[in-house]
Amino acid sequence: MKEGDMKELTRILPKERIKDRLIDRISFAPDAGFYYLLPKVVVQPMSEREIISLFRLSHELGIPVVFRAGGTSLSGQSITDGILVDLSNYWRKVSVEEAGASVRVQPGITGAMVNAQLKKHGRKIGPDPSSISAAMMGGILSNNASGMCCGTVDNSYHTTRHIRFILPDGEVFSTESEADYARFESCRADLYGGLRAIRDEILGDRVLYDRIRKKYRTKTTVGYSLNALVDYEHPMDIFARLLIGGEGTLAFIAEAVLETVPDPPYKSAAMLYFPGISEACLAIGPLTSLGAAMVELMDRASLRSVENLEGISPVVGTLGEGAAALLVEFQAESPDALADKVNGFFEICDGLSLSFMPSFTVGKERDLLWKMRKGLFPSVGSVRARGTTVILEDIGFPVEYLGAAILHLQSLFRLHGYAEAIIFGHAKDGNIHFVITQAFEGMGEIGRYDAFMRDVVDLVVHRYGGTLKAEHGTGRNMAPFVETEWGADAYRIMKQIKTLADPRGLLNPGVLINEGRNAHLEHLKALPPVEVEVDKCIECGYCEPKCPSRDITMSPRRRIVVRRALQTMKQEGDAAGFRVLSREYQYDGLDTCAVDGLCAVSCPVDINTGDLVKRLRRESHSPVANRAALLAARHFGGAEWMVRLLLQGGMLVNRIAGRGTMSGLTSLLRRIFRKMPLWTPEITAPPDMRWARGGVGVDAEKRAGDEIGEVGRRGDAGGEVGEEGKQGDAGQKKIVYFPSCISRMMGTYNGKSKNIMECFLSICGKTGITVIVHKRFRNLCCSQLFASKGFEDAYRYKANEIIRELWDASDAARWPIVMDVSSCTYTLKHLRGMLTGDNLWKYDRLQFLDSVEFLHDMVMPASVVIDRKNRVVLHPVCSLEKMHTGAKLERLASHYAKDVVIPLQHGCCGMAGDRGFIFPELTASATREEAAEVQVGTYDGCYSTTKTCEMAMSAATGVHYESILYLIDETI
Q: What letter would DSSP give residue 120?
């Protein structure tokens, strides 16, 4: 933007919410679709007042404005070369009302989070798109999302009760306000009168009226929701419903109230395999009659794209070339009702031409089936040829024609050379998605795509009377064909609606109404090859809600977008742009990435952007830095001693000069040395290590087995704690305890008489578990410190060392190894790629247990609860989610406390070892929403499983967090 225009913008928003750097404009530019425009500026308003001012500025400057929430739109609905308004940061309010019968939402809250709030009421929102974990309510409403279960009855249009909206002229109206109906008529007489006239025209045209009624008996989102003009009478009600599916082209939806639908607690799903598409489609009717909640179709090509995923039945690999499958789910309010539905299926299954007798599953097996189905689109994208773009379109047919239409569509794939194309979708509604990969290099490839799309339009509209968009919104790809599907009269009405609401045409132009007959071939997105760790990313955005840095710098998707932009600049010889973008990427892309790997948990194809960041950090290290890291790894005991000395010195300074002295001093030094760690009030004195020398009591009451024996009496391998040999090898409960370096340096807790290591040993003593402590543990490290910073040589050295030492300590893998910090356990469980020689053989035989696994599996069955706590809150760390042990943590806490709370907004705290000390703004941003939940409660204890994460949550909430070990030790 011009300098004068930017000055106007700064009168509306503070500088920190105006993103005009090159890296901001580039990283925010694309959504999940295959079109690309570079915005002039990205802004993050917080209030309706600011939205109104942005509309005014857009009109004054003649610059388009586009609103974006989750950016999961697939057809370019949320891109612009004007002002991009990002709603994902400050528009996340959600309020459950009427005991769950309705819910009030802002546009920046994800559908999954809304459902999480409704879960305790046994309710959910009606629309259930596959992208619901990342898709936000603004997009769900603006695209009239439906999904796998809701059909045409419970979609966004039919479940939206009230809408509060802002018109491009700045007027604000709400369908909840009776006064606003009269004000709408007086303040916007042109819009009011125009909509009344259009409605009268439709009511007087029986052919058009019947066409509208017929169209909306099946799923369709092509063009504006013309059914609003026959379903509602008052122009404001009509306009409010036109916003549903209006793709942000008519007004801004500031808030909506949705009626919710039941979420039956009992669900069972199965994959049904058929020899062909026709046989699968013939089963849709009987399954629908049985009350199947979901019937999802997958052709052979889509099954092939996931047949090698972990947990997928080997049967898939044996299917014939023309085979197909239906993923079917029954839902009910009780186990008996669910069993009746499943039994009803088996009574008719002999007549369904099944290739195999299916097995209905629940729990994790069911979840795996749905994860596979929801990940089909990204999974195909991940195996595309490098440099190609993924295109997903969603079309619909009358169910009776579905089988024939799919076979016809597959013939178009062959005709136009799309051998990798797949088909899947919501068979119960006749709604299917097809995915192709396309290169847009050269007019030949663009021409091939154009010819294919025009054949698809002809197939859908003229041959089978279907719809070109069933649920994803019209978008840029189908905008040129809206008139083809609807006809001239209906299209003329749509253009009138756009003109009435947005006379200047500056609100998301070109998306739904576009006079360009080749608009679907313009502004195409390129995906140049980048680093192998992230190259298969298709920018779907599923990763973003999990990322701790998403609100302060960048999300995984945006980090990858910038890597692609850098590659393009390099190819095009843009040296100046490359320098600027690389410099800005250092802080946004590298320094503030927590490398927690949660993006891989959300990603359907397991892309871990942290691996990319580690690589880039590794490549940035000088030989001197690498040698220094290796030296520290070889002499880790000395390095640990130095850190302990520094911590003791800092505590001494605070005692002498005041407890805030070190915080102030390090804050001052950070102005000069940007990466100087910040001393925080949560830092405590290093723990007393006398327990490791023997003779130190763990429990003042000295219960049996509660003393620490002489460490090292088994030689160098280690020493035992407890009553050695009491039970003999048969049935003896014995473990190797490896106290983490974090615990050794920072393992004390304010107000606790025991440090974390003494607490661990106390628990073992009370439950009769013998403990082996490695004699040289103070020179050992799990290697995470070096791995996260990209020091590969030091990482490899420390990884191999720890396996050798733990092999000896465990008596050649005879006893399991337990760690007291979850992130360190996760590191140990993922060392294989760094190991050499016989360490690989040893590693595969060792058993590593996180403290949660140990406490749940060994301590909980052996303990007697004496004083159960009332209400506690948990912070499940990233490592637990990646190790799939979060459920064990919850069960463990529930055994020792009556009421266990896990905040709905829990996630990575951004601490990432030392990252939160160096970039405290990262942890402040990452913990903001979880902390807000915790602060409204009263708890008997707050617990987690990694010391640094506990420190981050303590700082964020003002409530003291400690290790879960203390909950157990204090209640048994």
A: G
